[in-house]
Design a protein that fits this description.
Helix content: 10-25%
CATH class: Alpha Beta
CATH architecture: 2-Layer Sandwich
Number of domains: 1
Oligomer: single chain
CATH topology: 60s Ribosomal Protein L30, Chain: A
Number of strands: 10
Order of helices and strands: EEEEEHEHEEEE
Largest sheet: 5 strands, mixed
């Protein structure tokens, strides 16, 4: 068994077997897992907000769906992934608070922004576990591409 490498909030990382990646406590944040099934180059980003263009003087590209997914994609290719084979799975984007104003549903906006960016890059979204009202911890396994989702009081799910 390789290492389980932690990806923090507003961060990303890339690995190859035998190592794997995890990120903890995805609430409204999204965990974007990218995977090349042939080279087994594996990436995980923990994004917090949908759109970097709304923020001036933004230096943290990993924090946003648009720039974080772009950087993860580029890092995957540098690590040997073939751009035409990269696929994606996403999890998170929960609605953690009941707010009357639906514009405030950051989780849903994060999920939509993530999907839009994947589409722009031509990356096929294989599976997702998003929405609802609970946090998730995710693990992506580089040897299989399995994306394991754990939530308190819920059965473990693999997508």
């Amino acid at each position: 068994m390789g290492r389980m490498i932690k990806v923090g909030m507003a961060d990303l990382n890339v690995c190859k077997p035998p190592d794997n990646l995890t990120t903890l406590g995805l609430g409204s944040c999204i965990g974007i897992a990218l995977y090349d099934p042939s080279t087994k180059v594996t990436g995980l980003a923990h994004i917090m907000l949908p759109d970097s263009t709304q923020i001036r003087n933004n230096t943290n590209v990993e924090k946003f769906a648009d720039t974080g997914i772009q950087k993860l994609y580029e890092d995957m290719i540098k690590a040997g992934a073939n751009r035409s084979r990269i696929v994606a799975k996403i999890a998170g984007g929960a609605k953690m608070f009941q707010i009357a104003d639906s514009n405030m549903n950051v989780g849903e906006r994060n999920a939509l922004a993530s999907k839009a960016k994947l589409k722009q890059l031509g990356i096929r979204l294989l599976a997702e576990d998003t929405g609802l009202n609970y946090g998730r911890t995710v693990e992506i396994y580089s040897d299989t591409g399995d994306y394991v989702i754990k939530a308190v009081g819920k059965p473990v799910k693999t997508i």
